[in-house]
UniProtKB/TrEMBL annotation:
<dbReference type="GO" id="GO:0005829">
    <property type="term" value="C:cytosol"/>
</dbReference>
<dbReference type="InterPro" id="IPR042097">
    <property type="entry name" value="Aminopeptidase_N-like_N_sf"/>
</dbReference>
<feature type="active site" description="Proton donor">
    <location>
        <position position="383"/>
    </location>
</feature>
<feature type="binding site">
    <location>
        <position position="294"/>
    </location>
    <ligand>
        <name>Zn(2+)</name>
    </ligand>
</feature>
<feature type="active site" description="Proton acceptor">
    <location>
        <position position="295"/>
    </location>
</feature>
<feature type="binding site">
    <location>
        <position position="317"/>
    </location>
    <ligand>
        <name>Zn(2+)</name>
    </ligand>
</feature>
<dbReference type="GO" id="GO:0008237">
    <property type="term" value="F:metallopeptidase activity"/>
</dbReference>
<dbReference type="InterPro" id="IPR014782">
    <property type="entry name" value="Peptidase_M1_dom"/>
</dbReference>
<feature type="binding site">
    <location>
        <begin position="265"/>
        <end position="270"/>
    </location>
    <ligand>
        <name>a peptide</name>
    </ligand>
</feature>
<protein>
    <recommendedName>
        <fullName>Leukotriene A(4) hydrolase</fullName>
        <ecNumber>3.3.2.10</ecNumber>
        <ecNumber>3.4.11.-</ecNumber>
    </recommendedName>
</protein>
<dbReference type="InterPro" id="IPR001930">
    <property type="entry name" value="Peptidase_M1"/>
</dbReference>
<keyword id="KW-0963">Cytoplasm</keyword>
<dbReference type="InterPro" id="IPR038502">
    <property type="entry name" value="M1_LTA-4_hydro/amino_C_sf"/>
</dbReference>
<keyword id="KW-0378">Hydrolase</keyword>
<dbReference type="InterPro" id="IPR034015">
    <property type="entry name" value="M1_LTA4H"/>
</dbReference>
<dbReference type="Pfam" id="PF17900">
    <property type="entry name" value="Peptidase_M1_N"/>
</dbReference>
<keyword id="KW-0645">Protease</keyword>
């Protein structure tokens, strides 16, 4: 019997493991809830030793539970933060090892569900229909239905979803199975590759679709479809082919993208079959679609091979950053692009560690999550610090050797979950083969414990700065109060080069003057840009310059985007220069934000306790 190694679950998955899940759910836009039944097929891990099944739940209204089609004795226990209210289901006779029992749960979500966001027609672009979407990472699937809500358990899925509007789910649509039910339709999806609960995903609304590749389509609101198709077509096949050359063939069938409304809190969520993506990637200049390379890379790292708990989240995200950069280097032609992306990432890592403090627990690669909500520990650290560890291993053994390890690692752990030490063992075992004997001393020098448990920044590598040098040179010119900028300074640059330039300006010991800040925004078109990355970076410079004329622009942007990458730092910056406007802006837009984003901003602004008591 394998031990429980995830502190963020109350389930007894050491005794029972979910093998298949069937979700029979109706999307009720009137009451803003999901209702119906979920059937869990659980395999006994003991020989009749366990007499109860314990599932995670959080604010779910459970009306009945059947065990093997018969009424059962069950109880929802008292809530404990951050892990919720466990549901205990009696199995009086236990079950023989390997025996599968069926648990059927009748339920409805409640208004305290943290996994769903409901938008009124007025909150959508064409105002034609309401919209809903889910976001289950990290531990929010338990607010949809009782389950073993841990990345250490994987299940196949059947989705039978009823809605008056088009439905998208993290499964492959079953051909010719959509049924008309009067004003509603039944949509069926299957996920035959086992996935953890955090990858369960649903969305429904006025959704249109268009092809963007041989294996891909984009889905979004009708008003956004044409520009979304333009932004993505031509690149999806390239991304897929590049990834497959690095690892091995894509195993999920289709790879599609659902571009969500602006309140989506992340850049992308790697839900299988349908990546859920922020509309900030649709910037009209193809400058922000690197997000797609990242989410696609998750099809191997995270979705196929998964960290066993959020304590080892870097295994998902560090590997994904590495694969993303390999994909981009392959497409754009050379390692200079790999390093250019890594330079941007290093800047983000420096900022995250500065925000926490270099000795903070959350700056470690492996973070203890006992009593901690994974959302509170979420940051750039597992992404970029994890990337630097993976990249250091690549450089240590050499690219040719590391490229042989990549498919071995993903093949060995496909459809499984692992911790950092199992990764270490896999690496050491692979490179203990006789043909790698010349690497013995190098591999013995790896400080595994230091890499896993040290706080602060990792060792900084030597970057190829060839694509960034021009950005730094322009930034140097801006240190002079006499510099006269021209639109031609940046007219031939990519959006990411402009971003590196802006990041360098942000790092000036002495901020720009108000006059310089205003010239920066006006001459380079930043204050009017449709690219949220550039606009947000510019506003951070303006706030540091105490340019009060930009504060309302910050507030306006905070009412247009819900992506936490932008929202949280902008609120923190605005709070420092104009707390009254920050609080007023948050109050105005709080219902626009996803529940996860809303909770995090409340903490950032120091109003979380007030929100709880209201």
């Amino acid at each position: 019997m394998a031990p429980i190694r995830d502190p963020n679950t109350l389930s007894n998955y050491d005794a029972w493991r979910t093998r298949h899940t069937t979700a029979n759910l109706k999307i009720d836009f009137t009451d803003k809830c999901l209702r119906g039944s979920v059937i869990l097929e659980l395999e006994s891990q003991t020989d009749k030793a366990s007499k109860e099944i314990i599932l995670d739940s959080s604010y779910v209204a459970v009306s009945s539970i059947k065990l093997n089609s018969a009424p059962s004795t069950w109880e929802t226990k008292a809530r404990t933060e951050p892990n919720g209210s466990p549901v205990h289901i009696a199995v009086p006779e236990g079950a023989a090892k390997g025996e599968v029992v069926k648990v059927e749960i009748e339920l409805a979500t409640t208004d305290k569900c943290t996994a769903l966001q409901w938008l009124t027609p007025a909150q959508t672009s064409n105002k034609a229909a309401p919209f809903m979407f889910s976001q289950c990472q990290a531990i929010h699937a338990r607010s949809l239905f009782p389950c073993q809500d841990t990345p250490d358990v994987k299940s196949t899925y059947d989705f039978n979803i009823t809605s008056p509007y088009v439905v998208v789910a993290s499964g492959v649509p079953v051909p010719n199975e959509t049924k008309d039910l009067g004003e509603e339709k039944l949509y069926k999806f299957q996920q035959k590759v086992p996935i953890p609960s955090y990858l369960f995903a649903l969305s429904s609304g006025d959704i249109a679709s268009a092809p963007v590749g041989k294996r891909s389509c984009v889905c979004t609101g009708p008003n956004e479809l044409k520009e979304s198709q333009w932004e993505l077509e031509g690149d999806m096949d390239k991304f897929l082919e590049a990834a497959e050359k690095i690892v091995f063939p894509y195993r999920w069938g289709e790879y599609n993208v659902l571009v969500l409304p602006p309140s989506f809190p992340y850049g992308g969520m790697e839900n299988p079959i349908f990546t859920f993506a922020t509309p900030t990637i649709i910037s009209g200049d193809k400058q922000n679609i690197d997000v797609i390379a990242h989410e696609l890379a998750h099809s191997w790292s995270g979705n196929l091979v998964t960290s066993c708990s959020w304590e080892h989240f870097w295994l998902n995200e560090g590997w994904t950053m590495y694969l993303e950069r390999r994909i981009l280097a392959s497409i754009h032609g050379g390692d200079a692009h790999f390093d250019f992306s890594a330079i941007r990432g290093w800047k983000a890592l420096e900022e995250a560690i500065k925000e926490y403090g270099e000795d903070h627990e959350f700056t470690k690669l492996c973070i203890s999550h006992k009593g901690i909500d994974p959302d509170d520990a979420f940051s750039t650290v597992p992404y970029e610090k994890g990337f630097h560890f993976v990249w250091s291993l690549d450089r240590l053994v050499g690219r040719e050797n590391f490229d042989k390890f990549i498919p071995h690692y993903f093949g060995k752990w496909s459809n499984k979950s692992l911790d950092s030490y199992e990764f270490k063992d896999t690496f050491l075992e692979f490179f203990s083969a006789p043909e790698y004997s010349d690497l013995k001393d190098k591999i013995a020098s790896i400080d595994w414990e230091g890499r896993f448990h040290s706080t602060g920044l990792p060792p900084k590598p030597e970057f190829d700065t060839s694509l960034a040098d021009v950005c730094y040179e322009l930034a140097e010119k801006w240190k002079s109060k006499d510099f006269t900028p021209s639109p031609s300074d940046v007219s031939s640059w990519t959006g990411n080069q402009v971003l590196v330039f802006l990041n360098a300006v942000q790092d000036f010991e002495e901020p720009l003057t108000v006059e310089q800040s205003q010239a920066l925004g006006k001459v380079y078109g930043l204050s009017e840009s449709k690219n949220a990355e550039l606009k947000a970076a510019y506003y951070h410079i303006a706030m540091r310059s105490k340019d009060a004329s930009a504060y309302q622009g910050v507030a306006d942007l905070l009412g247009e985007v819900g992506r936490m990458k932008f929202v949280r730092p902008l609120y923190r910056g605005l709070n420092k220069v104009d707390r009254e406007l920050a609080l007023k802006t948050f109050e105005k837009n709080r219902e626009f934000y996803h529940p996860i984003c809303r909770q995090m901003v409340e903490k950032d602004l120091g109003v979380a306790e007030a929100a709880k008591s209201s």
